[in-house]
């Protein structure tokens, strides 16, 4: 049995693996980059080894450094988690060649499923249903055009080495085929150094169905039923659930048996996922569910399978990697209830889903459900890695119960000043079509305008902010305890500024909003409601932003200050450039809103700033 394990990953998955390893009595070793020196997975592990600078290409993706860290600490095994090197057959082989245990499938299995065209041929030979298409070696334009015409439009062109939505083009009619092929090949060459493509029949009402499989070195393979991952944005999953809604037992039996055949075809060991695309235009039917690809690793969404089966998949991985057989037989596995997971991202849906980075000054995900996270209050959300903050997971006896639980959790998220998609998650879950399981992979795109909530505070939120200040002042201290729900009347007027609008709000009446929580400090009041944070600058306290009203210069997005053209006390004219913010590889000039004087300047060249941070204040000319 493994006694010391190195986790070649970071964030929530590293913390997740450490938790199970500790329960099994296995010592753990974390690896970390400069950006993660104080990260939760580093603090949680028994040992930690620094492996390089912040960019993943110089740290988490350098296999030699990870193997060296294992040797340095005496770790016997390496668990890759997901992402980074988890599906890199060369790294898996290097771990094995170093005399270490690779907690994952054999390199040959990873290779066999690595290219989509070869994998489809293998699956077809194994009797696994495959989407009608073409994966031939003849890559001439003429042959590809002929095959596309035979398949019938619309048709999908896919890079054989593609992933993450890159190297894909939908073609609706024959006359557009050659231009789309050329564009797809260009992107595939730039992204994967491989411009070969395959063709697939376009599915008009697609659902993303995947089956969790598990194999061992003794020839055993089982499935742990299916998951539905249809709610996606830009080909990235947002909400996953198990079992798939609308899946009858006969269809489940056929698709899960096909997944087991797929795993056996590559002598699979460990945790893996067979991904299928389903044409759900007439419901879920076995003859309309087709193999898409195999993920030769643990999936982000594995907790929903654990919740409905009672299995710890990481424990199974460590046992099987140690040479033991799978702990359960197929007949012992069954589905219990329904589980849903949502990926909580550090992003701003109201700002085009731009990433949101910075320190988690306030971070509270509540105590309900199963929370998988790699951060705590005070930690940093770094611009170097995936923006996922946490996975919110629930189990219910029914799907409706699970939906209601998860929506409640999302609406109760309290995070500031980093923005999140919590309100967006709740809107997806509360949508009538989602509740009725009328969904496909185009669900979010089709409903995006109705799913993104406004970040403008309504009258109740303004009132709540004023009442929070009233309660803080009548209790003669500045800080209102985080999470306190107001149940007493205030006794003053509060002048507040929110998103450039200033109001004086009477807090002399009792105002109770059981859905809102928040806090007050000398500069601001922050109200949390329905998964969003609403920030009010306190003019009554004489803060720069409040005193200046519309003269507060706010960062429009997270970024880096690359130039500051003024100093405190400078006289400026309307439209004069004050500073330049660089964000998302673009430069944004911030200018004076009117003639006046710079009374405050908090920005400095080279500083990283958060969205809506007050960078300067201009006092209008008398």
Automatic annotation (TrEMBL):
Keywords: ATP-binding, Biotin, Ligase, Nucleotide-binding
Cited InterPro entries: ATP-grasp, BC-like_N, Biotin_BS, Biotin_carboxylase_complex, Biotin_carboxylation_dom, Biotin_COase_C, Biotin_lipoyl, CPAse_ATP-bd
Needed co-factor(s): biotin
Record-annotated Biotin carboxylation domain positions: 1-449
CDD domains in the cross-refs: biotinyl_domain (cd06850)
Occurrences of domain Lipoyl-binding (ranges): 542-619
Domain ATP-grasp residues, every copy: 120-322
Record Pfam families: Biotin_carb_C (PF02785), Biotin_carb_N (PF00289), Biotin_lipoyl (PF00364), CPSase_L_D2 (PF02786)
Domain of life where this protein originates: Bacteria
Alphabetized SMART domains for the sequence: Biotin_carb_C (SM00878)
Presence of the UniProt keyword Acetylation in the record: no
Protein name stated in the entry: Acetyl/propionyl/methylcrotonyl-CoA carboxylase subunit alpha
Native source species: Qipengyuania xiapuensis
Taxonomic lineage of the native organism: Bacteria, Pseudomonadati, Pseudomonadota, Alphaproteobacteria, Sphingomonadales
């Amino acid at each position: 049995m493994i006694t010391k394990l190195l986790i070649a990953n970071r964030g929530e998955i590293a913390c997740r693996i450490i938790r199970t390893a500790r329960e099994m009595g296995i010592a753990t070793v974390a690896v970390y980059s400069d950006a993660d020196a104080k990260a939760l997975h580093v603090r949680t592990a028994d040992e930690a080894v620094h492996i390089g600078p912040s960019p993943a290409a110089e740290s988490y993706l350098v296999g030699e450094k990870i193997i060296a860290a294992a040797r340095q600490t005496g770790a016997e095994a390496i668990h890759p988690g997901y992402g980074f090197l988890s599906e890199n057959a060369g790294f898996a082989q290097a771990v094995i060649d170093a005399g270490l245990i690779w907690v994952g499938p054999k390199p040959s299995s990873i290779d066999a499923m690595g290219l989509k065209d070869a994998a489809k041929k293998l699956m077809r030979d194994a009797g696994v249903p495959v989407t009608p298409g073409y994966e031939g070696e003849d890559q001439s334009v003429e042959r590809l055009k002929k095959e596309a015409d035979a398949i019938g439009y619309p048709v999908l062109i896919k890079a054989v080495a593609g992933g993450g939505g890159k190297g894909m083009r939908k073609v609706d009619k024959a006359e557009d085929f050659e231009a789309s092929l050329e564009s797809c090949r260009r992107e595939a060459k730039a992204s994967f150094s491989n411009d070969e493509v395959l063709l697939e029949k376009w599915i008009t009402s697609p659902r993303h169905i995947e089956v969790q499989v598990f194999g061992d070195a003794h020839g055993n393979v089982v499935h742990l039923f299916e998951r539905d991952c249809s709610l996606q944005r830009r080909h990235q999953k947002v909400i996953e659930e198990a079992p798939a809604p609308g899946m009858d037992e006969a269809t489940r039996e056929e698709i899960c048996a096909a997944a087991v055949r797929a795993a056996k075809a590559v002598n699979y060991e460990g945790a893996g996922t067979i991904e299928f695309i389903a044409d759900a235009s007439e419901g879920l039917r076995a003859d309309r569910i087709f193999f898409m690809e195999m993920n030769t690793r643990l999936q982000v969404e594995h907790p929903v399978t654990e919740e409905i089966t009672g299995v710890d998949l990481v424990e199974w991985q460590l046992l099987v990697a140690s040479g033991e057989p799978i702990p359960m037989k197929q007949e012992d596995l069954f589905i219990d209830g329904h589980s849903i997971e949502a990926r909580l991202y550090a992003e701003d849906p109201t700002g085009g889903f731009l990433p949101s980075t910075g320190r988690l000054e306030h971070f509270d995900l509540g105590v309900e459900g199963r929370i998988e996270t790699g951060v705590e209050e005070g930690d940093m959300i770094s611009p170097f890695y995936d923006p996922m903050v946490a996975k919110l997971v629930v189990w219910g006896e029914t799907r409706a119960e699970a939906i209601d639980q998860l929506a409640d959790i999302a609406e109760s998220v309290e995070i500031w000043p980093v923005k999140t998609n919590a309100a967006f998650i709740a809107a997806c879950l509360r949508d009538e079509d989602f509740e009725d399981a009328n969904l496909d992979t185009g669900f979010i795109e089709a409903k995006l305008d109705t799913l993104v909530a406004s970040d403008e505070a309504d009258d109740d939120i303004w009132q709540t902010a004023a009442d929070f200040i009233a309660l803080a002042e009548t209790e003669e201290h500045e800080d209102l305890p985080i999470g306190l729900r107001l149940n007493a009347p205030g006794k003053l007027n509060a002048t507040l500024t929110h998103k450039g609008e200033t109001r004086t709000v009477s807090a002399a009446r009792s105002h109770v909003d059981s859905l809102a929580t928040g806090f007050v400090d000398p500069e601001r009041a922050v109200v949390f409601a329905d998964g969003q944070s609403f920030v009010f600058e306190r003019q009554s306290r004489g803060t720069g932003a409040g005193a200046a009203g519309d003269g507060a210069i706010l960062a429009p997005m997270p970024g880096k200050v690359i130039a500051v053209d003024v100093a405190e006390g400078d006289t400026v004219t309307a439209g004069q450039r004050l500073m330049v913010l660089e964000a998302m590889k673009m430069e944004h000039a911030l200018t004076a809103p009117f003639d006046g004087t710079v009374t405050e300047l908090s920005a400095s060249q080279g500083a990283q700033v958060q969205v809506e941070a007050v960078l300067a204040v201009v006092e209008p000319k008398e």
